[in-house]
Amino acid sequence: MTTEPDEHTHGPEERIAVRDNAAAGRFEAVRSGDVVGIMIYERTEDGIELVHTVTDPAHRGEGVASVLVRTTLAEARAAQLQVTIICPFIESWLQRHPEQATGVVHQER
């Protein structure tokens, strides 16, 4: 996956950039220079496990977690990585956005 931020428009003037902080094992959602959300992941031999998603409480309801999920899934598909979902938020998000589930493997509990 890319380490370059992907810009996503949020509102008329704001952008959310998603960057891969591989050293910390997480994707970070950045707005105006501040990390406003993270998605913790673990790399596997042939894919990526999405473990947990967290949004700064001051930014909940602004679509930060959705941008993290949508960007991560798109980049994983582009890199042909197998995606395993462990995070309950992502599981519920995929129920609301079934078109994004293509190529996603759900972790059985």
Plain-language structure description:
This protein is an alpha/beta fold. The chain has one domain (6-106): Gcn5-related N-acetyltransferase (GNAT) (Aminopeptidase, 3-Layer(aba) Sandwich), CATH 3.40.630.30. It contains two helices and seven strands; from the N terminus they run βββββαβαβ. The protein has helices at 64-78, 88-96; strands spanning 6-10, 14-21, 26-31, 34-43, 47-55, 82-85, 104-106. The chain has a seven-stranded mixed beta sheet. The protein is globular, with a radius of gyration of 13 Å. It starts with 5 loop residues before the first strand and ends with a strand. Mean pLDDT is 85; it is low at 1-10.
Give keywords:
109 residues; 41% strand; disordered N terminus; seven-stranded mixed beta sheet; 2 helices; Aminopeptidase; alpha/beta
